[in-house]
Specification:
By secondary structure, the protein is an alpha+beta fold. It has 2 domains: 119 residues, MutM-like, N-terminal (N-terminal domain of MutM-like DNA repair proteins, Alpha-Beta Barrel); 124 residues, Helicase, Ruva Protein, domain 3 (Orthogonal Bundle), CATH 1.10.8.50. It has a 4-stranded antiparallel sheet. The protein has a 4-stranded antiparallel sheet with strand order 2-3-4-8, covered by helices on one side. Strands 9-10 form a two-stranded antiparallel sheet. The structure holds zinc ion (ZN). The site of zinc ion (ZN) has 7 residues, from loops.
């Protein structure tokens, strides 16, 4: 599943290629995503400028002036900029056609599992049900130790589940929750209310660190979003604990353990994360 760094890298890649351009229309080959693609998509975008591409949590927001396209990559979605006459593959469900340039291009949405979404919101975005109750962005100033300590309050839920709760902070998925907790020396199962202010300081810092490193690693894949058949996947990164069950800890050599929390694979080092 694309996590925040992949979505942010996608945003940067396509923004560099098409921001400031103009849409000519849209081709919808299969509208059956998580929710139906609006049938009037072609008319909604035709002749409209693409003023800016924003990101909120894992939603990409295309500002067309009179409204926004809201796009979520779901489990397996990806976006690329291609020549408009590039034959579509089986899972290339939507093309947003781009005007101008030396040759006609398209922003192509591929999604084999079709859990993604492409929606239209006229006018302002504020109050859209998908965006209304989201917590702060992890990489913005509002995500501080003081904020986190207050947000965790008296929650008894495991800290890893709290960290992955979009109402507390957005965009910290399973891989980065595991990695940030290892770096902060906090056991994933510790009740959220038991974190001290110092724990929160370390955790806020390691969340930012892991996400920024992943985005930096993704920078080298930016070309994959333009004129390429390459599939943007997970960035080549070395993880401390994620996916390393029974392997030695890279810091202390102890065996990495695995359990499941909220159905998600959870990894930790019993020596580096004792409690
Ligand atoms: Zn260790």
């Amino acid at each position: 599943m694309p996590e925040l760094p992949e979505v942010e890298t996608t945003r940067r890649g396509i923004a560099a290629a098409i921001e400031g351009g103009r849409f000519e229309g849209a081709v919808v080959r299969d509208a059956r995503l998580r929710w139906p693609v609006p049938p009037e998509l072609d008319a909604l975008v035709a002749g409209r400028p693409l003023l800016r591409i924003w990101r909120r949590a894992k939603y990409l927001l295309f500002d067309l002036g009179h409204g926004h396209l809201i796009l979520h990559l779901g489990m397996s979605g990806s976006l690329r900029v291609v020549d408009a006459d590039t034959p579509p593959g089986k899972h290339d469900h939507v093309d947003l056609l781009l005007a101008g340039g030396e040759r006609p291009r398209a922003l192509r949405y591929r999604d084999p599992r079709r859990f993604g979404a492409l929606l239209w919101q006229p006018g302002e975005l504020q109050g859209h049900p998908l965006l209304a109750r989201l917590g702060p962005e992890p990489l913005e100033e509002g995500f501080t130790a003081a904020y986190l300590k207050a947000a965790l309050g008296r929650k008894r839920v495991a800290i890893k589940l709290a960290l992955m709760d979009n109402h507390i902070v957005v965009g910290v998925g399973n891989i980065y929750a595991n990695e940030a907790l290892f770096r902060a020396g906090i056991k994933p199962t510790r009740p959220a209310e038991k974190l001290s202010r110092a724990d929160c300081e370390r955790l806020v810092q390691t969340v930012k660190e892991t996400l920024l490193e992943a985005i930096a690693a993704g920078g080298s894949t930016l070309r994959d979003f333009v004129d390429s058949e390459g599939k943007p996947g997970y960035f080549q990164q070395r993880y401390f604990v994620y996916g390393r069950e029974a392997e030695p800890c890279l810091r202390c050599g102890e065996e990495i353990r695995q359990t499941r929390l909220g159905q998600r694979a959870t990894f930790w080092c019993p020596h580096c994360q004792p409690r």
